[in-house]
Amino acid sequence: QKGLIKREQLGKALGILHNVRYFPLSINHLDRSLVDLLPEDFIFDKRVMPVANEGGRLIMAMVDPTDRPTI
User: Fold this and answer.
1) Residue 48 neighbours by CB distance under 10 Å
2) Contacts 24+ apart (CB under 8 A), 31-39
């Protein structure tokens, strides 16, 4: 909140810390066809969002990348 670092810088640092890829999620970049693959209650309950399909693997953005049961 004090503006010492930008949100993206924090996201990238946390990605490195948790060994996950940082993905700047924006409502403008959501692929509705991917979102429709998952039940809405799952997306909200688990706080995840499908962001890409890479070689048949669904890539998810997560609020908590340490949530191993969801992974």
Assistant:
1) 19
2) 34/58
